[in-house]
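Hi R.,

Here's the chain you asked about this morning:
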Amino acid sequence: MNFFNSLMSSTGVSKLGSADSSLNDLKNIIDNIKTIISVGLGLVTAGVVILSIFIAYKFFTADSEDKRKNAKAQLIYAIIGVVVLIALMIFAPMIVKSVEGAITK
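And here is the predicted structure, written out as tokens:
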């Protein structure tokens, strides 16, 4: 049995009966989720900005009406994406905090 206890402690897995270490493990998981959300939103933001610039360029350089309509529709979708992204940036921290508060009680 000592072999399994040493294996679990060396790999960072807590003992099943320890409430403090389980709570710390849970806090670490929540912190990792917060980091993933922050990095993900940052990458998506950068992608949306680059895509919007490219679509705006297509819109202004379109030589036919069909190309202009297509670029306009894509630009509208990009703007909708930005609005959704801003909503996520506002509400994601609130959701994570409420879940964190419910779990750690």
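One quick note: The CA atoms of residues 94 and 100 lie 10 Å apart.

Cheers,
M.
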